[in-house]
Design goal:
12 helices, single chain, five-stranded antiparallel sheet, five-stranded parallel sheet
């Protein structure tokens, strides 16, 4: 099987590493890829949000399967263009990807499907935003309706800050605050059937102790030793399956990854958000424990044969991912500095490039993902931090409390 993987971040590097372990994957093409992915397959340039360009590359690459990693290409309709060429693609259509591309659409789908979630108001004006903030009170939760690379959400006790964020966005969703621990669950779907991966938990705030602004994610771990034994079954029954059925009933079957972001509140399970792809950095930890062949799994989903795939197999133990970020992230980052220690096993490139002299440099806000495994979360954490400590990047930063005391 020749696989074309679209994307260039840490999520895609982790996917590439798992695909390279699948004996059914005879050729891996990464577009545009990154320096870390270049060791696993051929990296070719492409405008990943241009549906026609990606579809053309899929044809010229003779791809048997196209996997679309990031959300922006999905919302742009890349999967539709590839499917129109008759090539199996793992990733939802542009319409189905609106489950992430529009938080208002996601709320509408959840209401129709009877999925538990936070009460919310969609706001387009200052007056509507102020009324919603007053209705729900602090802590204020304000979400940009569209894509924002994981940085469009503000959770604050400061009403002025909440209102300022609302006014920066064309349309926002303001909702009630959900208490309790958050859980991420990735659900692989072929449009009719679904399989859940291991649940994970990520850390969104930039600073230790959950301080500072939200980011795309500063670390994650799996599995969750504190979670109820029936948690995954409950999420599938009450959240994933009704949502997938609602989308299918609207004539937009969801083929790809439905990311269920949830809060285990004092009033029960509630959805915080949906995404239309694997979460970053949770999937880096989850894939570290997956024994089932990833290429075969995603091909089964892309071709409507997920029900025939069988049960997923997992390695014993735990995995922890620690994100090394650039100075200034999640605000204005300082890029172009030399980067060392990125070639160790378990280190995935999230924002890197080679300069004209061939030196590896940091180019993104999140630069590297350091993934450790072990018999327990504590052991996996120790390995992940050993990798992070080996990274040399001027101004580089990582949280010191990922998966602490688990």
């Amino acid at each position: 099987m020749r696989v074309l993987l679209i994307g260039s971040g840490g999520r895609e590097h982790a996917l590439a590493a798992s695909l390279a372990e699948d004996e059914s994957v005879t050729k891996l093409i990464c577009a545009p890829g990154n320096p870390g992915m270049a060791a696993l397959g051929d990296c070719v340039p492409v405008n990943q949000t241009d549906p026609a360009a990606v579809a053309s590359l899929a044809v010229t690459s003779a791809a048997d399967l196209v996997i679309v990693g990031p959300e922006a290409p999905l919302v742009a309709g890349v999967a539709d263009a590839v499917r129109a060429k008759g090539i199996p693609v793992y990733g939802p259509s542009g319409e189905a990807a609106l489950i992430e591309g529009s938080k208002a659409f996601a709320k509408e789908v959840m209401a129709a499907a009877g999925v538990p979630t936070a009460a919310a108001r969609v706001c387009k004006t200052r007056e509507e935003a102020e009324a919603a903030l007053d209705e729900f009170g602090a802590p204020y939760v304000v979400k940009d309706d569209g894509l924002a690379a994981g940085k469009g959400v503000v959770v604050t006790d400061d009403r002025a800050q909440a209102l300022a964020h609302a006014l920066e966005c064309e349309r926002v969703v303001i909702e009630e605050y959900l208490d309790g621990p958050e859980v991420s669950l990735f659900v692989v779907s072929d449009g009719k059937h679904a399989k859940a991966l291991l649940p994970a938990q990520d850390f969104k705030r930039i600073g230790d102790g959950g301080t500072g602004p939200n980011t795309g994610g500063m670390g994650a771990y799996t599995p969750l030793p504190w979670a109820p034994d029936d948690l995954v079954a409950e999420i599938m029954e009450r959240v994933a399956e009704p949502t997938l059925a609602e989308l299918a009933g609207r004539g937009i079957p969801f083929v790809g990854t439905l990311y269920c972001g949830l809060a285990l509140t004092s009033k029960g399970l509630k959805v915080v958000e949906f995404n239309a792809r694997f979460g970053d950095p949770e999937i880096q930890a989850v894939l570290a424990l997956l024994e089932s062949p990833l290429g075969k799994l995603l091909h089964a989903a892309a071709t409507g044969r997920l029900e025939d795939f069988g049960s997923l197999w997992w390695r014993e133990g735990a995995a922890v991912c620690v994100v090394v970020s650039n100075e200034g992230y999640p605000g204005t980052t300082v890029t172009g500095r030399p980067l060392y220690g990125a070639d160790e096993a378990g280190v995935f490139h999230a924002g890197t490039a080679l300069d004209a002299s061939g030196q590896l440099i940091a180019t993104g806000g999140r630069v590297l993902n350091c993934v450790g495994t072990g018999a327990s979360v504590a052991q996996a954490r120790q390995e992940a931090y050993a990798l992070a400590e080996g990274v040399k990047l001027e101004g580089g930063y990582y949280r010191k409390d990922i998966a602490a005391n688990i």
